[in-house]
From TrEMBL:
UniProt keyword annotation of Metal-binding present: yes
Family: Belongs to the DnaG primase family.
Region (Disordered): 437-459
Signal sequence segment: none
Enzymatic reactions: ssDNA + n NTP = ssDNA/pppN(pN)n-1 hybrid + (n-1) diphosphate
Pfam families hit by this protein: DNAG_N (PF08275), Toprim_2 (PF13155), Zn_ribbon_DnaG (PF01807)
EC number: 2.7.7.101
HAMAP family for the chain: DNA_primase_DnaG
Domain Toprim: 262-344
Zn finger residue spans: CHC2-type: 43-67
Protein name as it appears in the record: DNA primase
Keywords on record: DNA replication, DNA-binding, DNA-directed RNA polymerase, Magnesium, Metal-binding, Nucleotidyltransferase, Primosome, Transcription, Transferase, Zinc, Zinc-finger
Length: 657
């Protein structure tokens, strides 16, 4: 239906978003300000404890800081009432007292036809389900039972069977007075090229109904029972209801499960999705027999900001993933990307679940690679970079891929990650072979390799220095993270410094990554996500470090100015240590030959800088009497510490400006 210009703007201005949303939620009286149209509630799209769903009544938009749902009054009605765009408009217009404009007869006719096609598809679903219970479907039932599908699962997924008959479904639908044009238009039959009656599209196949986000049956996927059939899987042809590149199997239920906190998993086929859901991974979807399209990718991101792509452990699965990288790079946004879980060789998710169970799959999901790592793997696996030209070729290929990213911040982070991976690839090779060009006069002027490496004492002193600096760096990171946890509204201000932290400790890295991932969220939401992810025990251990617990801004969480000064100072010291580490690493690498005066001077400077850094770290901790065997905390100190931990975890500290 075509709406006249200005109708939707008028409708949005008349419809109060807070009233529309208020029918589905309970407003949080502590955070909401009705006079300003600033309303907060628990999100109706996913399960949560805190009020992270925000409605700006003046602007007419809502946004959830938890599941990232966003939109206006029309989209809210569409999502919560499970209706079409025009149906949502009609609902809001009726409430606002606005008459709907007269509908274009042609548009009405088209809408009516889609409704009729959907009704025919439902008749086909019921027919196929009945056929699965017949004697002719015995082999199909045995196959499904062998794949682990119980009778309850068959009902849940509405799995059916198309008998090996030319006009089985056609005759069934004609007996119900369904018009030829509707059967053909739904893709359930094909016209005969020999002038005979139309024949069924699906014959001798196990049938999987495909439903859209509204729950309408729009297509079928059929698996051939004949092992010699040229098409093992066959999808419905594209129709007015079904666009293969814009549809996903199980999209409706996956969206609900993802809203409840389940990870969104993208598998290859119907059985993979069914196996995943049966194993407890409810937010599973599959493209319909083709590579993921841009439309499908955008659908995935509307459900979850970071879907996990499960790759079959074969060459075809790897190629599909590599194509997906090129599709996704230009579309990346902050907090919106992909991760990749690679299945064992020759297995898909269904195989893995049947062989090793849900814990094995969960482990793969937990270790899913970020997209930048798969990009690096694609450009480097199986290749040798033993010449400047080959290295330059790698640099060019990676630079071209990174330049596809439109977001400058993401492009910068990709560049830094690739730089780090490149250093790891080439740096060790440089250290393995490094011969001095000094010729010895003995032996008739023949060339000989220079003396090998630094003395054990030189190596030992540098390694001890580095280890001491590492402990100091660990303490500084803990101070930074716990200080920002007390004032999470400052995370955005120190975003670049946080991103540069090395975080060798896995707990530090998880907390840092969560801060960066949710940097633009409500501070209370950010704090809760960190608490849920790492747990009270981890945070308590970090606070138990004396140097952390007695830091003034951590003892008084919420003091913005003290926290800002502390974090800025600690980040500055970490940056100085990183520069020192690079100098030491360069010096160690050059200790493969005879030390000249320049190298001696560099090592001396590195040692002096290391000594200053060590003294700085010791001065930070000396006054708190940290013994080598651990700190002892008095009863009064323990009480103060417990109160501090409670205030940070509960997030009830007030800003002290």
């Amino acid at each position: 239906m075509s709406l006249p210009p200005g109708f939707l703007d008028e409708l949005r201005s008349r419809a109060s978003l807070s009233q529309v949303v208020g029918r589905k939620v309970m407003w949080d009286p502590r955070k909401s300000n009705q006079g300003k149209g600033d309303m907060w509630a628990s999100c109706p799209f996913h399960q949560e404890k805190s009020a992270s769903f925000h409605v700006d009544d003046r602007k007419g938009f809502y946004y959830c800081f938890g599941c990232h749902a966003k939109g206006d009054a029309i989209s809210f009605v569409r999502e919560t009432e499970n209706v079409s765009f025009m149906e949502a408009v009609e609902i809001l217009a009726r409430e606002a007292g606005m008459p709907m404009p007269k509908q274009d007869p042609r548009a009405q006719e088209k809408a009516d036809k889609r409704t009729q096609l959907a009704e025919v598809m439902e008749l086909a679903v019921q027919y196929f389900r009945l056929q699965l219970r017949t004697a002719a479907a015995g082999a199909a039932r045995d196959y499904l039972a062998g794949r682990g599908l119980t009778p309850q699962a068959l009902e849940q997924w509405e799995i059916g069977f198309a008998p090996d008959q030319w006009q089985g479904l056609w005759d069934h639908l004609k007996a119900k007075n369904v018009e030829d044009a509707l059967i053909l238009g739904a893709g359930l039959a094909k016209p005969s090229s020999k002038g005979g009656r139309p024949y069924d599209t699906f014959r001798g196949r196990i049938m999987y109904p495909i439903r859209d986000a509204r729950g309408r049956a729009i297509a079928f996927g059929g698996r051939a029972m004949d092992p010699n059939d040229n098409a093992k899987y066959l999808n419905s042809p594209e129709t007015e209801l079904f666009d293969k590149g814009r549809s996903l199997y199980n999209v409706r239920d996956a969206r609900t499960a993802a809203g409840q906190g389940k990870p969104l998993i993208v598998a290859e086929g119907y059985m993979d999705v069914i196996a995943l859901v049966q194993a407890g991974f409810g937010a599973a979807v599959a493209p319909l027999g083709t590579a993921i399209t841009e439309s499908q990718l955008q659908m995935l991101w509307r459900i979850s900001p970071e879907p996990i792509i499960t790759l079959d452990g074969d060459a075809a699965g790897q190629r599909a993933a590599m194509r997906l990288i090129d599709l996704a790079l230009p579309l990346l946004e902050a907090g919106q990307s992909l991760r990749f879980a690679v299945m064992p060789d020759g297995q898909d998710p269904d195989d893995l679940l049947r062989a090793h169970g849900a814990p094995a799959l969960q482990k793969l999901l937990d270790n899913a690679m970020p997209m930048v790592r798969l990009l690096w793997q694609r450009e480097t696996d199986g290749r040798v970079f033993d010449s400047p030209e080959r290295k330059a070729g790698l640099d060019k290929a990676l630079r071209e891929k990174i330049m596809m990213i439109k977001d400058p911040s993401i492009r910068s982070h990709y560049g830094q990650e690739i730089k780090d991976l490149r250093w790891q690839l080439f740096r060790p090779q440089k250290a393995k072979r490094d011969f001095s060009p000094v010729a010895r006069a003995s032996g008739g002027g023949k060339w000989a390799p220079a003396p090998q490496g630094p003395s054990p004492s030189a190596k030992s002193s540098i390694l001890v220095t580095a280890a001491g600096l590492g402990a100091t760096e660990h303490l500084r990171e803990a101070v930074i993270l716990m200080a920002l946890l007390g004032c999470p509204q400052l995370v955005e201000e120190f975003e670049n410094g946080l991103a540069a932290m090395r975080c060798q400790d896995p707990d530090h890295r998880r907390i840092r990554d969560l801060m960066l991932r949710h940097v633009h969220h409500d501070p209370a939401v950010l704090r809760e996500k960190i608490y849920d992810a790492v747990g009270e025990y981890t945070l308590e251990n970090m606070l138990a470090q004396r140097h952390v617990a007695i830091t003034p801004c951590i003892r008084s969480p919420g003091n913005l100015e003290k926290t800002r000064m502390t974090v800025a100072e600690e980040l500055g010291k970490l940056e100085a240590v990183r520069g020192l580490d690079e100098e030491i690493a360069d010096a160690v690498e050059d200790l493969t030959g005879t030390a000249d005066e320049g190298l001696t001077w560099r090592l001396g400077e590195a040692a002096r800088n290391a000594d200053r850094a060590q003294r700085s770290g010791q001065e930070d901790t000396a006054e708190y009497d940290i013994a080598e065997n651990g700190a002892h905390i008095s009863r009064d100190e323990r009480s103060a510490f417990d109160a501090l931990l409670g205030s940070i975890l509960k997030g009830d500290a007030k800003d002290k400006k």
